[in-house]
Amino acid sequence: MNAIEGGANVMANMAETIEPLQTALVASITPAQIVAVLAAMVGVGMTFVLMWFGVRKLISIFRKAVTKGKISV
Q: In the chain, N or C terminus with fewer CB closer than 10 Å?
């Protein structure tokens, strides 16, 4: 048996070993759950983006108030 045949046997055994796990995962996770997780990630991400822009705006207002003596919105 050469190295190529040995590697093919290892891969075949690995595929047989992983198959029950793959079947269980496919059966337990639905597309609706994936969509829900993605929607939650987008919602949390948008919150952080809006918070980032808000903090930058507040820093800009404060900096202008200190340097120019004016408060603008």
A: C
DSSP 15-32: HHHHHHHHHHHHHH--HH
Task: Give per-residue pLDDT as tens, 19-35.
Answer: 888 888 888 888 899 99
In order of 38, 44, 50, 54, 63, the CA distances from 72 in angstroms are 38, 30, 20, 14, 11
Rounded distance between C-alpha atoms, residue 57 and residue 63, angstroms: 10
What's the pTM value of the predicted model, to 2 decimals?
0.52
